């Protein structure tokens, strides 16, 4: 780990795990970093890098016996350089592959996961809707109607990452028969399925988010996730991925901290580097404190996950806390850079903008607070 890991949490990784992290770091530094600002400005995804990235063999590590600590640090390294790339990876491996791995039948896992792990096939996860975000559990409007061995899907989804180019889209819809939420793997190109890129974003511009419309989309019964019979099953996926978003937040703020630190050593005012001024050191230490506290939390979260005692409130607290600390930290980094912090040239502006999206997705701070609050008080404050 670099300057951001003051307490050397990365030393908890073993030798083989550290080699994997080093390969990811090298790829992100040598291949993604040089083009990240340009891709972000043009709101285009660097598809040409996917085959090379696939050779690192990190997609689906969690489903091949890897420790959660390793998968967490993989996520951190990506977001330390480019939160857009980290989000692309999280959608593909955490949400899409995670849905198949945890809720698919053995036949479905064998059918879809190997090619997704090789990244020959890319996944997306379609839950959020135009009229519903935080209330999606009760307010899901996309419907599924069974007709023999076929399901007919109708509805709309919004903010679906990777959806403009994904080969498989996991679509969540309410069964008209029993009123329960079920999951379906929809192939790209299915008649009636349309994904339209969302334009004019100010965060994660490289991520290809889309509005999806489903008009009488036919899905075979064999593409219904066998283990998804209610929203409780959907929630098991979100429990895992919220922890991943906490790791994303740590990576984002480490990236911002390292850039602010480097800038403070190079930028001179009043005849000396601004790193020599007390107020700048104060901001750097605040950033490092947020990084260190959050990194300690997600490391412990990974240990709980590997010990099999991982609960909703664990991931919800980590997501709420780490993303809030991230939002503070990148703001302090921008403050250190003053006006230079709002342009891409100095490596801070993209982190400031992207942090806003990470702060919001996978459950807002308020919703995650209510999950933790219910756990600690025994009282539900959900409306």
Structure explained in plain terms:
The chain folds into three domains: 9-117, Butyryl-Coa Dehydrogenase, subunit A, domain 1 (Orthogonal Bundle); 123-229, Butyryl-CoA Dehydrogenase, subunit A, domain 2; 232-377, Butyryl-CoA Dehydrogenase, subunit A, domain 3 (Up-down Bundle), CATH 1.20.140.10. By secondary structure, the protein is an alpha+beta fold. The protein has helices spanning 15-42, 50-54, 68-81, 83-103, 106-117, 136-139, 231-266, 278-306, 312-337, 349-360, 365-377, and strands at residues 123-126, 143-147, 150-160, 168-175, 181-187, 193-197, 210-220, 268-269, 272-273. This is Acyl-CoA dehydrogenase. Residues 235-376 form the Acyl-CoA dehydrogenase/oxidase C-terminal domain. Residues 124-217 form the Acyl-CoA oxidase/dehydrogenase middle domain. Residues 16-119 form the Acyl-CoA dehydrogenase/oxidase N-terminal domain. InterPro entries: ACX4-like, Acyl-CoA_DH_CS, Acyl-CoA_Oxase/DH_mid-dom, Acyl-CoA_Oxase/DH_mid-dom_sf, AcylCo_DH-like_C, AcylCo_DH/oxidase_C, AcylCoA_DH/ox_N, AcylCoA_DH/ox_N_sf.
Question: Could you list some keywords that capture this structure?
Answer:
about 375 residues; alpha+beta; Butyryl-Coa Dehydrogenase, subunit A, domain 1; Butyryl-CoA Dehydrogenase, subunit A, domain 2; Butyryl-CoA Dehydrogenase, subunit A, domain 3; 7-stranded mixed beta sheet; two-stranded antiparallel ribbon; about 50% helix; globular
